[in-house]
Amino acid sequence: MKRLSLLFVLLSAASHAIAQEPQKIKGPDERYKVDILVVVAHPDDEGAVTPYLARAIYDLHKSVAVVFGTRGGSGGNDYRREHGPAMADVREIEARQACAKLGIDKVWFLGGKDTASQNVLNSLANWGHGQSLEEMVRIVRLTRPEIIITWLPSIFIGENHGDHQAAGVLATEAFDLAADPTAFPAQLAGASKRLEPYLENLTPWQPKKIYYFSDASDSKRFMGTGPAYSVKEISPSQKKPYYRLAIDAALPHLTQFPEDIERMAKLSDADLEKLMNDPHSAWWNEPDTLIFGKTVNPGPTVAAGDVFAGIVTGEAINGEPSRRQLASVLPMSEQPQLYLGGPWLFYKEFRQAHWILGLPQPAKPEIAVKSGSLLYVPLVVLHGGKTPEEVTLKVTAPDGWKVISGEGRLLLPAERQTALRVEIQTPELSVEALKNVKPQTVSVRLVVAGKDAGLVDLNVLLGHSGLPQ
Question: Is the terminal CB of the chain with fewer CB neighbours within 10 Å at N or C?
């Protein structure tokens, strides 16, 4: 009997101890935690940074995820005949296979649509800016990256693709918003019932740094703006140059570069080395430079320092979100003022709103357009706004360029800010003439009551091809 009583006491004590064990609450899904989140526009865009990604993955042992803004359905197909929605399916598969070559298995596609334009505002509108941003913030909160790498949101002579810039805009906005509990709050609200599928139970997250890369023709202007890494350096773990690992990852993109890929797939290592040493045929700059955007890490920051310098992986940063909204770049004034509008004005506001004032930009606004196409110069006039106001726009263009519309006397409505547009027909030049052409300046002057009130300059380079403005 005593033995039974003792056994009962022991069992009761054990059951009581079990009852006192705390209930284990599940944390975030660690399978999706990454060190680097790459945000680009189209399948194959990731190739711009695959030499660095190979270094980070194989030799720094970092995890990487990639977000594509579109599925590339409007891109050309130089390999086979598929186009449109079928082409989007093909390019998505190519992108997943290319990422898998580097061991990247976390790949997302936003719902953006390809936009053949140099204007980031066209791309943001066509992508559905609000919905794409919500999706982007969700991915940041799910993957909790330390670093974001994305396209440079700025206008430089080069490919200057609006979709590239849109990816950079969304990535920068998500960098700031993912830590803000008031941004897309349903993502952060815990579902109390399984019948509430709209609440996602994610956690605010602040990435530590953001870096950019550019499609500008002249990459030398970015030297010193961020860390530079040799694409020719040999990977200690893979015993191959980083450019070779990047080439291997590019091979699935046959619809975009069939001739180059099929040719390179047959080249020996020695021939590939010769190719990469030729500045006219090399696929990457040497060294490859990332452009430092900003950091939320405390302490001094060296822009050219290593990407992961000063970062404690997995450490959350508490406190205020990284946004720092400042006053508008357009000051209040009773006197009329003239500004270059469109994407140029947007980027002035954008850099200030997101505290990335140190990003490189041309000394004078610039753009490249196809020879013989219509150039438009977007303008914004600030004025008192209490009554209609008469102003005059005077345009100075290079010889052979013809002003089509927008010049002359204008009666502005009673509003503080009025958007205008000057259109100029550019001359059709021969291929031979375009070889030596240089950027030329278009100037627009604002005249009020016979006096100059403002001047806008835009450097324009004519080329034999290019995206519509």
Answer: N
CB-count exposure of residue 253 (10 Å: 0-12, 13-18, 19+): buried
Average pLDDT over residues 244-254: 95
SS3 for 118-177 is CCHHHHHHHHCHHHHHHHHHHHHHHHCCCEEEEECCCCCCECCCHHHHHHHHHHHHHHHH
- Residue with token string 């010049």: 407
Phi, psi of 30 (to 5 degrees): -70, -15
Which residues touch 449 (CB under 8 Å, ≥6 apart)?
none
Tokens of 78: 């130089």
- Can you tell me which residue has the tokens 């430079």? 289
Element (H, E) at 229: strand 228-229
Q: Outline where 202-353 has alpha helix (H).
A: 242-250, 258-265, 269-277, 342-353
Rg (CA), the chain: 27
Burial class (CB in 10 A: 0-12, 13-18, 19+), 462: buried
For residues 346 and 385, the answer to whether their CB atoms sit within 8 Å is no
Size of the chain in residues: 469
The 3-state secondary structure of 429-444, one letter per residue: CCHHHHCCCCCEEEEE
What angle, 0 to 180 degrees and rounded to 10, lies between the N-to-C axes of helices 129-143 and 162-177?
A: 50
C-alpha to C-alpha distance for 339 and 381, rounded to whole angstroms: 6
Q: Could you tell me if 311 and 211 are in contact, meaning their C-beta atoms sit under 8 angstroms apart?
A: no
Q: 296 phi and psi, to 5 degrees? A: -105, 5
| Model confidence, pTM | 0.92
Q: Which tens digits make up the pLDDT trace of 423-444?
A: 999 999 999 999 999 999 999 9
Question: Whole-angstrom distance between the N-terminal and C-terminal Cα of the chain?
Answer: 94
Angle at 277 between CA 276 and CA 281, to 5 degrees: 55
Query: Looking at residues 179-185, what average pLDDT do you find?
Result: 95
